[in-house]
Amino acid sequence: MRVTGDWLRAAPTQAVLRMLEAGGHSAYTVGGCVRNALMGVPVSDVDIATDARPEQVVALAQAAGLKPVPTGIDHGTITVVADGIGHEVTTFRADVQTDGRRAVVRFSDHVEEDATRRDFTMNALYADARGHVLDPVGGLPDLTARKVRFIGDARARIREDYLRILRFFRFTAWYADPSQGMDPDALSGIADGLDGLETLSAERVGQELLKLLGAPDPAPAVACMAQVGALARVLPGASPDALGPLIHIEQGAGLAPDPLRRLAVLGVNGSQLRLSRRQQRRLSDYRAALGCDNLAETAWRHGAAFARDVAALRAASLGVPLAPDTDALIAQGVSAVFPVKPRDLMPGLQGPDLGKALKDLETRWVASGFSLTKADLLS
Length: 379
Known about the structure:
Blueprint: H1 6-9, H2 11-22, E1 27-30, H3 32-39, E2 47-50, H4 54-63, E3 67-72, E4 77-82, E5 85-91, E6 93-98, E7 103-107, H5 111-116, E8 126-127, E9 133-134, H6 139-145, H7 154-160, H8 163-175, H9 184-192, H10 202-213, H11 219-228, H12 230-234, H13 243-253, H14 259-265, H15 277-290, H16 295-302, H17 304-318, H18 326-335, H19 351-367, H20 374-378
Parallel strand pairs: 2-5
Antiparallel strand pairs: 1-2, 1-8, 3-4, 4-5, 6-7, 8-9
Helix pairs in contact: 7-9, 8-10, 8-11, 10-14, 13-17, 14-15, 14-17, 16-17, 16-18, 17-18
GO molecular function: metal ion binding; nucleotide binding; nucleotidyltransferase activity; tRNA binding
Domain Poly A polymerase head: 27-149
InterPro entries: Bact_CCA-adding_enz_type3_sf (IPR050264), NT_sf (IPR043519), PolA_pol_head_dom (IPR002646), PolyA_RNA-bd (IPR032828)
């Protein structure tokens, strides 16, 4: 089997592959780029695996006029920059020791050893510079069937890195055929490895969950997470019940997938995930806005996109469709302009008294449906 695509034919990628081959080494694109190309999914990053040792990669790159950057040299990774584009080139590796979070590795001369240390069969596909696919662990049949399956023993793969529990659900949401069901051996291994989730950093868990929730329809995968007990381990108190209805509402309203919107509908504040300040603030704003019944006010304070999110979250939580007047209320709020300015109350009022008066007038104006005029309010 062969794989094709602009990503493989690109001159920078070919330059790196040919550089390694000209030096007498094996060189393969590997992982997501090969998987996505075979599935007809856009390719973003190109990773390369080789039997060349890191110092050999550096020497070959320099001799070829390319720029080597030792981004992960201790783990065998050199970023080779060609025409301004970076390619992570990693020496074949085999695990020597793992603790569920990181691994001690040794370099290998064999692509088969490199393949068996990866997580899922569909991620252990390799392709050379001409697109010929190498499948050391039987990933092609799983890819064709759109089945996410651990390489070898699921329990062993999970013990090597407990984040693979969350990665299983993420890859299931993005690439699996939902009509086929999930691999029972994988689910059994996950159930046995749940305690390991507590050893993971909040940052790694948060990043993986947001990637999962960014899938077109993560609801079946998240529901399965809840069934096997994984969701409660990483998001105590979370419920997947409203996620499916939210996806349906999003699709009907033309809303693009949004991981934070979907995280909000799970009913958690996200504090245990150590999100960025901006992300955490947005979740807090969602919670506050959901306590306000005035959608027009929400649109006035936060904008149309945020108000539409709130309307979708509220409808999904209640198990009802979007209200027919949703767009009209949002338009009303977005176009409203509070008619009173601070100077209208000065110099009679100053400082805290001025602020309080403006706040009181604003409250009256919002309660009127933005109908009170400046004269009404000042009278």
